[in-house]
Amino acid sequence: MASAYGYFPGCSLKGTGVAYEESLLELFRLLDLPLAELQDWNCCGATSYMSIDESSAFQLSARNLALAHKASHADLLAPCSACYLVLRKAQDYMQKYPQVAREMDPWGNGNLRVLNQIRVRHPLEVLFTDVGPDRLRQKVVRRWHGGNVACYYGCQMVRPYAEADRDHDPVRMDELLEAVGVPTVDWSLKTKCCGGSLTGTAHPVGVRLNYILLKEAARKGAQAIVTVCPLCQYNLDAYQSEIRRDTGQRFDMPILYFTQILGWALGGGYKSLGFRRAVAGRKTIAQWFAPARTEKEAYV
Amino acid sequence: MQRELKFQREADAEWARRVSQRPGCEGLFSCLQCGTCSGACPLSIYMDFTPRRIIALVREGFRTDALRSKTIWLCASCYSCAVHCPRQIHITDVMYSLKREAIQHRLYPARFPVPVLAQEFYRMVGRRGRSSEFWLVLRMALRSNPLVLLGMFRTGWDLVRTGRLKLRGERVRDIASLSRELAPREVA
C-alpha cells in the first residue's frame, strides 16, 4: 500500500464546506487511497492575511509545510483552492526571493529546502494523475441518470503557481466526470472568478458575479454546476434565493463537489457524501442521487 | 465625461521606484498599458480605477490616489490579470502590496467592509490559528455596518438547517508554536 497522502483540510472544509470533506474522505476510502489529516494544522491565511502582513502570511504556510515534513508526508493534499494557491505561492516565493525565505525559516537554520520538496497537490490533480479516468471507469457501480453538468474550476486552482490543470482551459474535471458517465457541457466561464469573500463584503457585486455564472451555465444547458472549491460552492449555492428575489430568475440549480459525483458513481452513500448539505436544488439532488425504489434498476 | 487633471508635482517618483522593488512587483515599469488586465478582470466594471489605471497611477507615483482607491480592495485575487498579462506582471501581487501599505498608513476607505474583514481575519487567525466563518462575518458586520446582518438571516438559516454553520470556532492546540512562528524576527 502506498504511503498516506497528507491531508490539509483548511478552515472551510470544517465549516460551510463540510460536504467537501465528507465526500473527499468517502471517495478516497472507496479508492483505497489512505489520507492522513495533518496534525494541528493552522489556517493558510487565504487572501486576507496577505493583505495585512506579507511575512506572517508566509510564516503560516511555513508552519503547515513544516508539520507536513515532520509527519514525513511527500504529498500534501489541499482541496480548497485558496489553501492550494497559498501553499504553492509560499514555496514559489521561498525559491525566488531570499529575503522572503529568511523570514520564513521555521527552524532558524536555513533548512528550507525540505519545505520545498513537499508536493502540494489538489485532489483533482491526484485523481487525474495517480488514479486516472480509466481506473475510475472500471470502478463505476452506478449508472448516471441525472442531467448535464457544467464543470466550474474557479480561479485559484488553475492560476500562476498551480500544476493542477491548464490555466485558461482546464479539462481534467470534465474528463473524470465523462469517465464515470456524466455528460458535461462546454462553457466559457469555467475559470471566471466567483468573487470569493466579496459576497460577504461587497455583497451586491459578489452576488452579481454568481448570477452571471449561473445564468451562463443554464444557457448552455447545464442542470447542475460541479465545483472544486468550498468557496465557489458556497457562493453559487447559498445566494440562489436572493438572486431569484432580485432578478426574478429561478435557477434552483444543484451546486455539487466533483468528489460527490465521483463518490456516488463508485457506490458511496447519500449521507456520507454530504448530499444533504446542499441549500439549492435539493429536489433535483434527491432525484439524481438518493437511494429510491428504482435503485436496483439504477445499478449497472 | 469629466476628466481629472493630474500634476507632476503631486507625484512621488521615488515611491514608485520603491514599489517596483518589492517582491512580486517587478516589471511594473515594463507595463505596456494595453489594458488586457482590465479586460480579464471580472471586477473591473465595479472599480473606481481599472487595474490598468492603477498600474499607471502607481508608476507615475500618485501614491494617495492608488492607496485610497476601492479598486485594491475589490480585487478578489483571482489572478486572471496575472496569467493574461503579456509582460508577465504580477498585478495581483501589486494589489496586495498596495493593500498592505494602505492598512499600514490607514488610508483605506472608511467603513468599507473588505479591509475590515481582512483585519478581523488577521486578528482571529493570529489568536486562534484558524478562522471561523460565523464569528468572522459577525465581527466584520459589527465593525462596518451592523444592518447587513438583517439581510443575512435567510442565508444563515439555510446554513444552520444543513449543518454547515459551526458556532464553536476551531483552534490550533499548539498555539505557542504558532505565535513563535508569527513573531517578528531579526532578518540579517
Report on the structure:
The complex is a heterodimer of chains A (300) and B (188). Chain A is an alpha/beta fold and 300 residues long. Chain A has two domains: 5-124, Glutathione S-transferase Yfyf (Class Pi), Chain A, domain 2 (Up-down Bundle), CATH 1.20.1050.140; 131-298, Rossmann fold, CATH 3.40.50. In chain A, 49% of the residues lie in helices and 8% in strands. Chain A is built from 15 helices and eight strands. Chain A has a four-stranded parallel sheet with strand order 2-1-3-4, with helices on both faces. A four-stranded parallel sheet of chain A has the order 6-5-7-8. Helices cover 54% and strands 0% of the residues of chain B. Chain B has helices at residues 13-20, 36-40, 51-60, 63-68, 71-74, 80-84, 91-104, 113-128, 133-144, 148-151, 153-161, 175-182. With 188 residues, chain B is mostly helical. Chain B contains twelve helices and no strands. The interface between A and B is large, with 64 and 61 residues.
Keywords summarizing the entry:
heterodimer, A: 300 residues, alpha/beta, Glutathione S-transferase Yfyf (Class Pi), Chain A, domain 2, Rossmann fold, 4-stranded parallel beta sheet, 15 helices, 8 strands, globular, B: 188 residues, mainly alpha, Fumarate Reductase Iron-sulfur Protein, Chain B, domain 2, 2 domains, 12 helices
Secondary-structure element pattern of chain B, one letter each:
HHHHHHHHHHHH
The two chains with the largest interface, and their residue counts, are:
A-B, 64 and 61 residues
Name of the CATH first level of the largest domain in chain A: Alpha Beta
Strand order of the largest sheet of chain A: 2-1-3-4
Oligomer: heterodimer
Largest sheet of chain B: none
Number of strands of chain A: 8
What is the helix content of chain A? 40-55%
Form type of chain A: globular
Unreliably modeled segments of chain A? none
How confident is the prediction overall: mean pLDDT of chain B? 91
Helix vs. strand class of chain A: alpha/beta
Structural class estimated from helices and strands of chain B = mainly alpha
Class of the largest domain in chain B in CATH? Answer: Mainly Alpha
Q: What radius of gyration of chain B results from the CA coordinates? A: 19 Å
Mean model confidence by pLDDT of chain A: 92
DSSP helical segment count of chain B: 12
Query: How many strand units of chain B?
Result: 0
Quote the CATH topology of the largest domain in chain B.
Fumarate Reductase Iron-sulfur Protein, Chain B, domain 2
